[in-house]
Amino acid sequence: MNDYVIFAVCFAVACLFLAAMFLYNVYRGVNDTLANAHIGAVYNFRYFQPLTGVCERYLAKIVNIRKLTDYEIARLNWSSDYRNGDKSFARSNTLVTCLMNNGDYRNFYAERSDMCKRSAAGDLMFRWGFAHLF
What we know:
Elements: H1 2-27, E1 30-31, E2 42-49, E3 54-67, H2 70-79, E4 94-99, E5 105-109, E6 113-118, H3 120-128
Antiparallel strand pairs: 1-6, 2-3, 2-6, 3-4, 4-5
Helix pairs in contact: 1-3
């Protein structure tokens, strides 16, 4: 009976170790930036929202990267109603479209993100449909 208990404890420790490594890879992948992101890769990043002044963490799959020219930024500032009268709001050059874990698409300015990690385990989470857990 002692052999079964020892085996069960070793198996439980091994499972916990694998789960810890999986979560480590989701949250602490390879250092990267959204400005240099690869389309189709999953990134875990913190984004500064200037409207509320808080930072939020996201796990998202990169769908598209658009480099904006100065003319496009000026045109967006002129035509968009988003924060139209706010003088402290400034758009940056790299607009990244991401697929969120709930299936929505969202745009982020890459220069407002930090603590960005490219995650191999995060890609598995998106493929298996478990990204909504994080």
